[in-house]
Write a structure and sequence with these properties.
seven-stranded mixed sheet, Rossmann fold, alpha/beta, about 270 residues
Length: about 270
């Protein structure tokens, strides 16, 4: 069993309980290095409580929508996903939590038709799943107000998706490409009418080690049998301390290359 099926097992366990769902979000933020990078970049871009129109493009479990709703409580947030069950699940959770500033809709990013509506678009680990990525970048550009920002987190072509060539089978599954080069993604956002504001490699030498010991190996263990999930607390008892140290080092290192990309582009 690979990454997505195992991740869904944990998501289903906490789906109907708001307390455990919040704990689940905290664990995702703690254990997934991409969340460290994404939240750090958002804090650098915008002060807390800034009022904006925000678009969470492909919200998945909703953990980044939750972060945005807490950090920018007076902003209007639209979150969409192509999966109806994910949308229904998030609607239920956010309603129970009393959020009034968030809407959830089923949506396909290749078919959205927003026009100069958003100040900020967040797109985390979505673009690598979409074949028609240039169409989506154009849709994002049209949806942004002039001067608006798009933050994209995605695998790079330097071993992203835990694959190193087009012939490798991705550990993550369902990817349209193994990742982007800096040149490729820059050219595509430029053609869409945006310019790169910042580009950072993530999952460098420290982050790659933290990913393998913190996420990949435990997922493989859990994938063998649900019973083995019970052993994970003991596994993390010995590994979590150095996993977190290596994650911190990755976030505070200027990675010259890495298997992940966090890019911010600005609507011209």
């Amino acid at each position: 069993m690979k990454y997505d099926p195992v991740k869904k097992v944990f998501g289903d366990i906490v789906s109907d309980n708001t307390f455990f769902r919040k704990i689940f979000y905290r664990l995702l933020d703690l254990m997934f290095l991409r969340s460290w990078h994404v939240r750090k970049k958002i804090r650098e871009l915008y002060p807390k409580n800034k009022v904006m129109n925000i678009f969470d493009a492909g919200m998945g479990f909703g953990q980044y929508t939750y972060f945005l709703a807490k950090r920018f409580p007076d902003s209007d947030i639209l979150a969409i996903d192509v999966k109806e069950d994910q949308v229904d699940d998030c609607k239920k959770f956010f309603t129970k939590c009393g959020f009034k500033n968030v809407r959830f809709e089923i949506g396909d990013l290749t078919k959205i038709d927003y026009n100069m509506q958003f100040d900020f678009i967040l797109c985390v680990d979505v673009m690598e799943h979409i074949v028609e990525d240039e169409l989506v970048f154009r849709n994002f550009s049209r949806a942004l107000k002039k001067g608006g920002m798009l933050l994209v987190n995605t695998p790079s072509n330097l071993g992203g998706s835990d694959a190193h060539s087009d012939d490798d089978e991705s550990f993550i599954e369902e990817h349209a490409r193994i990742g982007y080069s800096k040149e490729d993604i820059t050219e595509k956002v430029n053609r869409a009418g945006m310019e790169v504001h910042s580009f950072d490699y993530t999952y460098g030498k420290y982050g790659t080690i933290s990913w393998r010991f913190g996420i990949k190996y435990p997922i493989l263990i859990a994938g063998v049998s649900k019973f083995l999930i019970l052993l994970l607390p003991f596994y993390y008892l010995f590994t979590l301390w150095f996993v977190l140290i290596f994650m911190w080092l990755d976030v505070h290192t200027d990675n010259k290359e890495g298997t992940g990309i966090t890019m911010v582009s600005k609507k011209i």
